[in-house]
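Sequence and fold:
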Amino acid sequence: MVTVVTDSVACLSPELRTRLGIAMVGIPMSLEGTQYRDGVDLTAAEFYARMGETITHKTAAPSVGDWLDTLQPAVDAGADGLLVLTLPRRLSSTFDSARAAARIVDVPAAVVDSMTVAAAQGLYVRRLAEDAAAGATLDELVQRAEQRRGRYRLEFVLDGLQRLAATGRMPTTLARFGDAIDVKPILTIGAEAQIRTVGAVRGVQRGVERICRRVLDDFPEHAPGRAVVSHALLDDSARALAQRLRSERPGVEVDVALFTPVMAASTGPVIGVAWEDPALTASG
């Protein structure tokens, strides 16, 4: 059977990974000079317990050795092929190190740029892992990965701009002004794996409402589908949003997940929704 492999940016819980046999590489993080692997040495919950502190952090792409430490055990456990799905090549060299490692293992291995991040990447990986568990070959999985790429949507709203400014992605003066007047940007990841702004609102709850409306508008009233509400430090809002989506779209399976610390370290508190194109579920 083919084993599906991804990185920790995909926001997949340990329980889900175990159930579907998904192998994961933890993105390396440095917090106050101490090295961790996201989701391996440091869980999302442990990271968020420290997020109120003023901490310095750095992230890096997994090395070829990091990938081999995950790929080889899958081969040793009996995988006859490997499908590796990574965060976008445009955002990280993770894809390149995964591809280099894939050339070393002794079974056929394909590496695919997911062109998305966070829970949208997780939904993409999950569908392919289910196909692998049902007996799909590596060639079939690669074909389906190409067909489905770009069919997973993600929007999220930031509850503060100071951490974003600290990364250099926003001028500090602009971040302070935005926080002073309670402006919250709504972000998405576009077709070319570019994170871009799709709107701005006064107050995070208005951002949540706007994202909720987009999801509800995408799914017909009784259509099946999948969505994931992900968050960092906004648990009550996330659970309320998930409950509303379940109530208004009972055919849609809605999960709640913690936002990847690799991104939340730069965004601060955040809440968003990832959802798949309803046509994917309709077509099986």
In short: The chain has a mean pLDDT of 90. The radius of gyration is 19 Å. The longest strand covers residues 195-202.
